[in-house]
Specification:
By secondary structure, the protein is α/β, with parallel strands linked by helices. 45% of the residues lie in helices and 17% in strands. The strands form 2 sheets. The protein has a 5-stranded mixed β-sheet with strand order 3-4-5-6-7, with helices on both faces. The model has no long low-confidence stretch (mean pLDDT 94).
């Protein structure tokens, strides 16, 4: 018999570092994806920055060579898989685009992606209300550690090899962490929405959560909805927007979310809007939330 040992979710991850702030706990989730081995490496006597520099940006850091070690354990053609993962980490998410950017044929990319999905490194994602639309399929890195590694480590190798990894991290990586954490925060928000939705905390009984993306015909541009929670029995939905940034979330974010409700499949009626924010909300939003149609959720609320 064999058991697939899944990673911890963001709330379970926080239990490894109980004295840290919610923000730092979220950051650690974004760096480790909740993998127990990686979490055990963090030293709560040091700051988050010291831990990241020691683990990723040092020649002796456990996670400095972890990406290569992980791929070597799983695959023979590590170079091809590495190029595909690096291409996805850089923002490409469709087979043809990944093939063009990586220089690998679409047929081989398709084969490698199947293996990467099977091992849990990559996730095949589909727009939640259009699961059977093959055009609405994209590939994202499900492994948070690899996503961080491939986004930042390749350009840092020269600095790390001469012992200047910490300086490189502080100057070049730390300022980008809020941007990097955007997709991690969205994942956390979807976890929260499913958990609370099943408990009945929203305006409908959410039983399935995902994301939606596509073309906004009114603006003729690509757009997405970060969080979509569905009650398939009553054909109702909650939709949400997630902001991991160091500024107050304001009315224009809410207005944009309300406008996007028309993009969902018409069989679902949107009954509530969710705004997730790391840095709080404007006074206007606080007053608007009194009507119950809008729900405001700060990072600290997600850990309660």
């Amino acid at each position: 018999a064999s058991i697939r040992l899944d990673a911890f979710n963001y709330r379970q991850t926080a239990l490894f570092l109980p004295e840290w702030t919610c923000l730092d706990q979220a950051m650690v989730y974004g760096l480790t994806g909740g993998v127990a081995k990686y979490l055990a490496l963090f030293d709560d006597r040091k700051s988050l920055d010291e831990n990241v520099a020691d683990l990723f940006f040092s020649r002796t850091g456990y996670l400095y060579e972890e990406a290569d070690n992980l791929l070597t354990q799983e695959f023979r053609d590590t170079d091809g898989y590495s190029r595909i993962i690096e291409t996805i980490a850089a923002g490409s998410n469709q087979i043809t685009e990944i093939a063009d950017k990586s220089g690998i044929s679409a047929q081989n990319v398709s084969h490698c992606l199947r293996n990467l999905v099977e091992t849990g490194i990559v996730e095949k994602q589909q727009a939640i209300t259009e699961e059977h639309n093959k055009k609405k399929t994209r590939y994202i890195l499900a492994d948070e550690m690899l996503r961080f590694w491939y986004r930042f480590i390749p350009d840092a190798i020269d600095a790390i090899e001469i012992g200047k990894g910490k300086a490189y991290y502080l100057q070049n990586v730390k300022p980008q962490l809020s941007s990097y954490m955007g997709s991690t925060f969205e994942k956390m928000c979807r976890q929260f929405t499913l958990e609370k939705g099943i408990e009945g905390s929203f305006a409908c009984r959410v039983s399935r959560v995902g994301t939606w993306w596509g073309t906004n015909p009114n603006k003729r541009e690509e757009t997405d909805i970060d969080v979509v929670g569905l009650d398939k029995n009553k054909k109702e939905a909650v939709i949400g927007e997630c902001k991991f940034r160091h500024e107050t979330t304001d009315k224009k974010v809410y207005d944009a979310l309300v406008e996007r409700k028309a993009l969902l499949h018409q069989q679902y009626r949107v009954v509530q809007y969710l705004l997730f924010s790391v840095s709080g909300f404007s006074d206007w939003l606080e007053k608007e939330a009194a009507n119950g149609i809008l729900r405001l959720i700060q990072l600290k609320n997600m850990y309660e």
